[in-house]
Each structure stands twice: as C-alpha cells, then as structure tokens.
Amino acid sequence: MKVSTTRKTTVPPCREDCPAGIDVPRYIRCIQNKDFSGSLAVIREKIPFPAVCGYACVHPCEIRCARVQVDEAMAIRMLKQAACEYGTYVTPAPEATPPSGHRVAVIGSGPAGLTAAYYLARIGHGVEVFDKNQRAGGMMRYAIPEYRLPGQALDDDLRFIRQSGVIFTGGKIIRLADILDKYDAILIATGNQLSKRLAIEGSELSGVLWGLDFLRSVKANEKLSLNKRRVCVIGGGNVAVDAALSAGRLGAKEVRIICLEKQEAMPAYPWEIAQALEEGITIEDGWGPKAIRGKESSVAGIECVRCISVFDDNHRFNPSYDLSATHFFGADTVIFAIGQAPDIDFIDTRDVKTHGDLIEVDADLMTGARGVFAAGEAVTGPSSIIDAIVQGRQAAASIDRYLGGTGSIDLPEEEYPGGKVHEPAPRGTCRHKSFVIDHVQPLAGFDPVEPGYDQETAVEEALRCLACDVRQFTVLVDPLLCKECGYCKEVCTLNVFASSDAFNPSGYKPVIAKDSDRCVGCLKCLYICPDFAVSIRNGGNSN
User: Fold this and answer.
1) Is the pLDDT score of 1 beyond 60?
2) FRET label pair with 122: which of 30, 355, 464, 534, CA 20 to 30 Å apart?
C-alpha cells in the first residue's frame, strides 16, 4: 500500500522510549540502504557507546516498537550491533571547537563519566578522567561478563572517545579534597562497584562469594574452578543472573538462583531470566536466606525461610517471612548478589551530602559543593548502561552551563541523512533470528550467546521497519456511529485513541482519534469496530 511519507512532528514510539533519544527509524533506514557507516553516524549523534549498546543495551525501544501492531517488534539492539560491526567511523569530524580554557576532572570511567567527558571535550573543555583501575570502562570492563559484552566492543568505543581529546589517568585513587582547587568543575561518576554484604550465620565459611567480586574475578581470568560443584546464587537481579550464568560456564554441575520475589517479579530483565532457564539454571523463588551451613570450614548448603512478601504497605523493601516454612538447599558454593553500593570514601568534604549510600544532587546534578557534580549509579543506584549514558549527557550539559556555556552538547551539523524510505516487509514477516549458541551443549566459554546478524540478514530485518516517523495515515471516528465499546483502544498499542468528554445523540461518549500521527496503518481498529465507525486514510489530510 503506497502511503504518504511526510516527516511527522510526533516522535515515533521507539525514539520516544529511547532514554538517549536516538533517531531509531533513521539509523534503521540507513541499514535498509546498506549504509552501515551512516547508521553508525546516526547512533553516534546521541551516544558515544554504540558498540557497547549494540550488545548490552536493555533496549526499551523494542517494547514500544510499532511493528508489534502487525507481528513482532524490530530487533533494534541487534541492528545497532550490525551498524557497529559493518560500519566505520567515516563521518567528517566537525571543525575544531576553540578551547574554552576550562579544566574538568571526572572521577570514574564508567558509561556516565566517559559520556560526560566525551561531550565536554568536543565542545572545547579540557577533560581528564581518573579511575582507580588501570584501564577505562568501569563495570563494563571489569564486571559485565564477556558473553554479554565483548571487550572488543568496549575498546572500539573507547578509542573514539580518546580521539575526542579526553585524557585518561588510570591506577590512581583520587581524594576529592586534593583536586577541588585544581579544576573548574568536577564530576563524580564512580558507579556502584561494591557488593552489599549480608550479616548471616556462616558467611565466613570457605565457598561464600559476593556477586560483583565474583564477576570481577571471572573477568580477570582468575582461577575459579567450580567444576562439578553445586552453586546457589542468592538474589533476583541482573548481577545474580550473570553470576549464575558465569558459574555454569565455569563447570558447575548444578546452579540455583534463590530469590525473595516470585519469578515474574524478579528485578532481572525478563530476557536474562529466560536465558538462565534455557541454560538449565533452576530458579527457587519465594525464599530468603536464613543461615549457611558448613561442614568443617566449607559450605555444605544454605537454609532458607519462606518469604511471604518483599515490600510493605508503603512499598518499601521490608521482607516478611513464614518462619515455620524452611528448606535446605545443598551447595558447595554460595554467591550473594543482593545489591550494589557506591564506594564514596574518597569524598572527604562535608559539602557533598549523601542519602544512605547515594550522593544527593539538585536538578542540575550539582552536589552541595559548588562546581562538584555527580551522575550515574552513584546518584541513582543500580540502573542500566543507557540510563547512565543519559546521566552523563545531562551532567555534561549542566557543567557546560556552569562554566558559562549554553549547555548545548549536540552538534546539529553532524546530522546524517537516512536515505530512501522503503516499503516495509509484509505483515507476518517475523523478527529474524541470529545464530544462537546451542544451550544443550556444555557452556565452557564466554563467547557471545547471540553473536548477531550477517549483513544480508541485518538489511532484511531493517526492511521490517514501518518507518512510522514518515509514513502518514489519518484516523477518523464517526461520533454518530461510535457506541463507546472501546475495542479500538484495546487493540491499539500506539495511543491513537482517547475517550470523548461529550455525549453523542445516542447517549454514548464516542472515542476520538487524538493522535493520528501515531497510526501505522495496521487497520486493527477498523476491522474490530462493530459499528463501522472507524476509517483510515492514506496521508495526513483529514479533509
């Protein structure tokens, strides 16, 4: 069906739900035209970590993808991965920005700190990033397993960030008080790099490990043989799932995740839970740890008690238990992954306030100390890479304004054209699958579980995009025919329809098409309307 392709003012749902506001339809359109380098350029307009996000982004954009109206959501994250794998950084660099004369220190080289450093450097500020680790990348390098984020992807992004003029100094512990007078602004972006401890009987036994410490040891290739051992991981978040998956790859014969929540309420992402189940990991939900039992000085298992509820009536974390219901899980190794906290011992000034473990900031991410900002998980608590990137962007804009700039960190002259708009693949063309490692075979290595698309498959997947940023439809509802059944609102996930405040002559409040720009022409509303009140027209003119 030929449709109007006028650029619309409504932001498409995928871009609307991207925390960084990446122009998803435009970078997909580049791939449709086999322009992988152009696609990469579009992604880089908003984030300096396209390769990292191609593997490890939590892809909220896919949840809102308009393609779900006709079959399955686009594989947006994997198309980002394809852009990075097959594209090159060929876009011409903008003219050199005159140095501002200001110097900014960033403490922490995770996604928030490096994102802020990148944007500050390219608008003319001198930026030095400090980290206690020798190499940049923070938890992306030292804790996220290789099967989820290959080190090469991180190195590719870091190379470009360094080319922007960012200076990195690793292996150095910085005290805030020592640098307060040496820089015009300071950003604290140290993340959540400490494993929360649990005071529990038996936690001193040999074989008790802590989530992030365990994952760091795995990334450092330390000798951690779990061959033929029974492993229990305590916790329901992403760190717990990564610890369990890593334990399986290290040869454990049996891996259990024990968590307070029911499986459907676990804080880990659903696709990570699904991966754990596919790899043979057992989830024991609704149990809380009571005591670790040992034999001599080693772990023999963990005694758990039934969790009745995780949160109290005020929605605060406050688990309650049925102490009469207990269960013993045999184990040789217990890994606690019950949360993370920032290491803020280096903040030796009373002006930087904290709330619990987190740093307090104002709307501009400035702490109580003038010129000292904070961003990322040290402020928000555990989050995602893309959310940390967004915090880094906000910090860069705020710091630039503090230094006398406009706070504008995006360079409009970099905007890359998307190219020809193609007709989307017919409805029923489902999401293309990439090669996936066979979970039936023992997983002894840490190669990516989902390596990605070849170029041909990436183009085919991109052609599924409905181009809802440019394809135009007009939705009309006849107010005299509508009997307020609401079926159109039920079948439309794009929020096209709303209820009217006025009654029609038949006594019904007819549905109205409040936002035709969101329509993608799936026609579900037209087919389901029992009163034939809905009509769809090609193009944006409703007259």
Assistant:
1) no
2) 30
